Amino acid sequence: MRAPKILTFAGSIRTGSYSASLAALAAKELSLLECEPVLISLADYPMPIYDGDLEAEQGPPEAAKKLRDQMINADGVFISTPEYNAAVPPLLKNAIDWASRVKGEGDAFRKPVFCIGSTSPGGLGGYRASMMLRQVLALGLGALVLAEQVMVAGAAQAFAENGDLKDERAQERLRATLRTLIEQAALRAGLRA
Ligand SMILES: Cc1cc2nc3c(=O)[nH]c(=O)nc-3n(C[C@H](O)[C@H](O)[C@H](O)COP(=O)(O)O)c2cc1C
Fold first, then answer.
1. How far apart are alpha carbons 151 and 127 in whole angstroms?
2. Nearest CA to ligand 1 atom 10
3. I want to staple 72 with a disulfide (CB 3.0 to 4.6 A). Which of 51, 60, 108, 139 is the partner?
4. What Rg value do the Cα atoms of the chain yield, rounded?
5. 85 C-alpha vs ligand 1 centroid, how far in Å?
6. Where are the beta strands (DSSP E) in 82-171?
7. Domain-located, residue 142
8. What's the pLDDT tens digit per position in 7-49?
9. Closest approach atom of ligand 1 to CA 120
10. 99: CATH
């Protein structure tokens, strides 16, 4: 039986982004577990700001279709978000909004199991953005979002040179959350009884 495919991406394309560091670390940890990890960057999925007129004239951009394909082909999705003014950054919200407008077989937001990560140089670890992302995915799009989530506070100091979290217990919590994601993704995809 195949291993569950887990897609991972961050809501920032900034050089040195902490949320991208968390996405990369999650992909590294996933590669050590029983799954097929796929790490992408939204830098490779450039989209204009959503505009209903643009959609009516041209339909969703190719990047939105590609992102939607990545999601529908995944059994699990780990999204690592930064926090902008207590919310999800526009890059991530825009990508989700466009992907939600792509028509195709199946529902890319209802098929995989989602898991949320958040980072911030501040003390709350992007908690408020994580709650907004949960609302968008679960309430807005009907996604199954794991209760377990990962928050990295003090992100500027949190990562070691090799990309691991300096705090071993935090890294173990990340690992445990990813194990749950794999397990739930496999169950939902019918890969495990
Ligand atoms: C417009 C803007 C608003 C921000 N608002 C918050 C905020 O509400 N809470 C927070 O913890 N950090 C906030 N920050 C700081 C970001 O957490 C910080 O820039 C972080 O490095 C961005 O994520 P990244 O490293 O993944 O690019 C804000 C940054 C910007 C540019």
1. 7
2. 83
3. 108
4. 16
5. 7
6. 113-119, 144-152
7. yes
8. 999 999 999 999 999 999 999 999 999 999 999 999 999 999 9
9. 17
10. 3.40.50.360
